[in-house]
Amino acid sequence: MNRNLMSVARKALTKVHNPNSPATNNKLFVAGLSWSVDERSLKDAFCSFGDVTEGAVRILYDKDSGRSRGFGFVSFCKEDEAVSAKDAMDGKALLGRPLRISYALERARGGPVVVPNGGR
């Protein structure tokens, strides 16, 4: 494997696993959304866990059909609010479909996306 790629991956994993890292993980990736879920209903489902930041609920839509792609993001003001929302809502049904929730990963343009395995 390319040495430069290994170096970038190692740095990214160090940052992900470093408890002293200043970056907080208050953004959740929410998968398994029904086509009928809109941003308002997604925000309503999560706002009981804490302050959802303004404009921080986003559902991605297919550019051709205009339908939801079945996933979105919810950002909280505080990391502990995101943790309790993830713990409480992962696997719970929203409009008849079970949600799969994980922490969102920040994408660096042009760089590789390193996905931590979560200890599995």
UniProtKB/TrEMBL annotation:
Highest taxon of the lineage: Eukaryota
UniProt cross-references to Pfam families, sorted A to Z: RRM_1
Residues annotated as domain RRM: 26-106
Entry-linked PROSITE patterns: RRM
UniProt keyword annotations, A-Z: RNA-binding
PANTHER family named among the record's database cross-references: HETEROGENEOUS NUCLEAR RIBONUCLEOPROTEIN 87F-RELATED
Protein name from the UniProt record: RRM domain-containing protein
Organism in which the protein naturally occurs: Salix suchowensis
